[in-house]
Amino acid sequence: MEWIRFIAAAICISGGVFVMISAAIGVYRFSECLTRMHAAAMGDTLGLGLIILGLIVLFGFSFTTVKLVLVVAFLWTTGPVSSHLIAQMMVEKKKKREEEEKEK
């Protein structure tokens, strides 16, 4: 039974690492700021969630699990909110720049 838990944890952790590597490649390859930010935000949210889920499965249910769940909750609330605020700032900056070009 222990090996099933280990395999499930390895699959989750490997999936999380794959998502994080894909996000890093996306950040490097995309040309526009907003698409880069989207790749980074999605990679952080999903990748870290899978890695921490794998750690929860690996360690079992204990006080460490509670700490990991709190880390996931913190990351899942702050990551999308911060990326949304940065994207909103970039859109407003782009609108302001276009208005200044029209005035010239």
Short description:
The protein is mostly helical and 104 residues long.
Q: Count of helical segments?
A: 3
Run of helices and strands: HHH
Overall outline: elongated
Integer count of domains? 1
Q: Beta fraction of the residues?
A: under 5%
Alpha carbon gap, first and last residue: 72 Å
Describe the oligomeric state of these chains in a short phrase.
single chain
Structure, described:
The protein has 104 residues and is mainly alpha-helical. The chain has one domain. Helices cover 92% and strands 0% of the residues. It is built from three helices and no strands. The protein has helices at 2-29, 33-59, 63-103. The longest helix is centred in the last third of the chain and has 41 residues, at 63-103. It is elongated. The N and C termini lie far apart (72 Å). The model has no long low-confidence stretch (mean pLDDT 89).
Write the layout of secondary structure elements.
Blueprint: H1 2-29, H2 33-59, H3 63-103
Task: Fill in the keyword field for this structure.
0% strand, mainly alpha, 92% helix, 104 residues, single chain
